[in-house]
Amino acid sequence: MTAAEHHLLLLALAWILVSVPLALLAWQVWFRPRPRHAIIPHEDALPAWSFLDVSLPPPLPPGAGETGIPLRQWKAADGWVALGTVLLLSLLMGPMAIDPESAKAFELSPRMMTVQLAFQLGMGGLLLFYLKVGRGFNLVRIFGLKRQPLPMVPLWALGWILPGTIAILVLTGLTMPFVLKLLGLKEASPQMIVTALQATPDALTKWLAVLSVGIGAPFMEELIFRGFLYSVARRYTHWTYAALGSSLFFGVVHANAMSLLPLTCLGLLFTAAYEQSKNLLVPMCMHAAFNLCQVAIMFNLPEITKHLEKIPH
Fold it and tell me: At what angle do helices 260-277 and 281-299 cross, to 10 degrees?
C-alpha cells in the first residue's frame, strides 16, 4: 500500500466520522417527518436532538403502513451503540489499524486466520447479545429471517448478485484509469489478504481463509453494516446518507484504496437487496457467494491463466 492510497482511505474515513453529526442535524432540521396526530405524540414529534437523549421512551412498534425494513424499534441508545461500533471498527479494521510499510511484509498463518475467524464470529455474537439480551428484540422478526422460505433465499441472492456484480465490474473498468491517475499508480494493487493467500503454501491456512470469507465475514459484516448500522442510520438520518455512509464505511474497513469504489458499490447492492427482501439472510448469502467466488478464482488463477493463454487470438 502506497502513502497516497493510505491517505485516500484516511480521508474517506474522516469524511464518514465528520458527516455523522451533520447528517443528524440535517435530519432534525429538514427531513424529519412531522407529527401525524395533533394529540397523540410519538418519537418523530419530539424536539430536535432527540437522538442525543438516551432517556427517551422507546419508539412505537412498526406500523402497518411502514415500507422497507423495520425501523421504529430503534431508539436513541441504539444510536450511541452504533457510533461506538463505528469507532471500534475504525480502530481495529480500517486504515488507522494498518501501517503502509509493515503491510508489505504481511503473511498469513493458521493462527492468524483462526484469530480473524474468532474476531468475526465474536463481533457478530456481541451485537446479537446486545440486541437479544440488552434490548429484548426478537432477532428473527427484526431481521426478517422468515420473510421468505429458506430454500428461496439463495435464489433471491443469485438474482441480485449476478447482475449487480456485472454492473460493478463494468463501472470499475471505466473508473479504474482515473483512480490510478489520481493516486499516481501504474497498476492496481490487490488487497493485502489476497496477496498473502496467493503466496501461502499452507493448506490449513487456505481452509481457514475459506471459512473466514465464506462464513465469518458475511455473518459479521452484514449483521453490523446492513442489519445494525444502516438500519439505525436509516431511522435517524435521510435514507440516502444511511445507504451511502454505511456502504462507504464498508469499503473503507477493507483497507484497499483500489477496491474502495467497487466495495462501496457492493455495499449499496447489499443494502438494496436488504431493503427489497426485508430479510438479512439475502445479503448474507450474496456476500458469501461473492467472497467464495473470489477465493476460488484466486486459488486457481495460475490454471485459469494457462487456459486463457491457449485461446487463439
Answer: 150
Mean of the per-residue pLDDT values of the chain: 82
Reported pTM: 0.85
Select the more confidently predicted residue: 106 or 133: 133
Q: Are the C-beta atoms of 249 and 229 separated by less than 8 Å?
A: yes
Cβ–Cβ under 8 Å, residues 256 and 264: no
Q: Find where cell 484469530 sits.
A: 115
Q: How far is CA 39 from the centre of its chain?
A: 40
Closest by alpha carbon to 107, among 209, 3, 250, 259? 209
pLDDT in tens, 232-255: 999 888 889 999 999 999 999 988
Cell representation of residue 50: 432527540
Cα dihedral across residues 12, 213, 93, 219: positive or negative: positive
